[in-house]
Amino acid sequence: MDEPGLERPSDAEVEVSLIGPGYGECVVIHLGGNRWMVVDSCLDKESGRPAALIHLEKMGVNPAEHVDLVVCTHWHDDHVRGLAALLSQCPSARFICSTSLRESAFLRLVALGENVRGLHGSGLSEFARIFQRIKTRREQNKPAPLETCHAGSVLLDREEMGQTIRVDALSPSEGDHQRMAEIFKDHHDHLLAADFRIAVPSIHPNLGSIVLRVQAGRRRVLLGADMERRPSSDSGWLAILESSKEENRSDYYKVAHHGSENGDTPEIWSRLLVPECPAVLAPNQRLANPLPRKTDISRILSRTSVAYSTALPSLRAKRIEAPAEGVFRSKGIRIHEVPRCQGTVIARANMNGSEPWGITTLGRAYRLVEAV
């Protein structure tokens, strides 16, 4: 293998790998019996290919045969880049997205494709490619499953190696779905008639984000996507908490919204997770104030002492020393090289729950400490 820690898990093991931020994040999960699911997508910074494909290939896993489920939690471009290419290599996988992304206003916006510029243009273009691939499959009389989900949807429910394998959607709530529908409707005319030389107006895509609970035997994994805390009891994390049951607490957590304060609340840790639950996050390095911040890391470590990140929130940009730099500088343009900063956190455990999670870090991934 090119890297340590990438041997394929045994059939009786569950594995959760968070890859990021290249740019974005991706979760690859072994569900037992060499069956896999992928949640969201990011591109490998070296090759430009979907990071999930590279991760699976390094373990000798054939995505065409062994990936059963591809889930897009929401349409932000830091969660969807490369999804169309991923789907093309996973012909037997079901593709699932939020019910919010089947709203006619969103579909009409997707149809604009590359004409849309601004913060969310690439996300819309990626969805245009996804829908085109699904259409092509149907025209070729090949399986082309496109499904949507909401809070309470069961995405997968079967037995593997004598263990229950189940994937539940905990969001979006009915209230958030209706809010997304209204937001799309209210912005519809403006979005279609907008001057796309300016940024597409914000339409709060995190309202429709899919939070997942993955059960593999006695293991339960909570994937927080970009869910946020909102004041209404039928929205965001409060809606999830309202419907949660004590016996369904998870023992591994993909931290919501890059570890940001607005993606967190103490009740997540006390009601949805076991004490000292291992947690992992992928930073968002492209913000003016990258996430997580030092205060976010301190807050997370006050919830659990076992926490990891796929990379540092940010690295200092490096000047490019080249003759051409003088030309750019004479025109008032400063050129820097953005350092590559990507890693993987791999958590693995037996599905019978007899041992704690074994966690491996690759690349830039590291264990969170207060000194960061």
Please sum up the structure shown.
The protein has one domain (about 15-365): Ribonuclease Z/Hydroxyacylglutathione hydrolase-like (Metallo-beta-lactamase, Chain A, 4-Layer Sandwich). About 25% of the residues lie in helices and about 25% in strands. The chain has eleven helices and 18 strands.
Order of helices and strands: EEEHHEHHEHHEEEHEEHEHEHEEHEEEE
Q: Domains counted in the coordinates: how many?
A: 1
Estimate percent helicity: 25-40%
Strand order in the sheet with the most strands = 6-5-4-3-2-1-16-17
Describe the structure.
The chain is α/β, with parallel strands linked by helices and 372 residues long. The protein has a single domain, classed as Ribonuclease Z/Hydroxyacylglutathione hydrolase-like (Metallo-beta-lactamase, Chain A). 27% of the residues lie in helices and 23% in strands. It contains eleven helices and 18 strands. An eight-stranded mixed β-sheet has the order 6-5-4-3-2-1-16-17. Strands 7-8-9-10-11-12-13-18 form an eight-stranded mixed β-sheet, with no helix packed on it. The protein has a two-stranded antiparallel ribbon with strand order 14-15. It is globular and about 55 Å long. 45% of the residues are buried. About 4% of the residues have low confidence.
